[in-house]
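Would you mind giving me a polypeptide sequence along with per-residue structure tokens?
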Amino acid sequence: MQKVCASIPYNQPKVKGLGEKRPCVIFKIVVILHISNLIQKLTEVRMSRICAICGKKPSAGRSIKRRGMAKKKGGVGRKITGISRRSFRPNLQKVRALINGTVKRIRVCAKCLKAGKVRKPLSRQKKSSSLRALTE
């Protein structure tokens, strides 16, 4: 009696360069690697959605839909009609900031901007005004 692995018998010829490994074993390894890559991509957060200062990033949550009138207003109570998944994204703004003495454009959340954690560079002067200053 022959043993069968994913409908490939044991007496199948060896694949060149793979030694004793059968194609079904290789297929299983490839599937496992593919699944692990998919999981890694799903859990990854794009760098563009992360605050450069505090590291705030999108978080998952739920949105709850309700109908009906509240009990304190004389109704029977509010009923939940649907729950759907959603993501809470940070309020990121593109800002020119001084980082190690160089001016770079970074994405910073509004909370860090309001707290004054970003050091902004001096405003650029217009060419016409700088030329006037030189001539006077």
User: Anything to note?
Assistant: Helices lie at 23-43, 110-115, 127-135. The mean pLDDT is 79. Residues 54 and 98 are 16 Å apart (CA to CA).
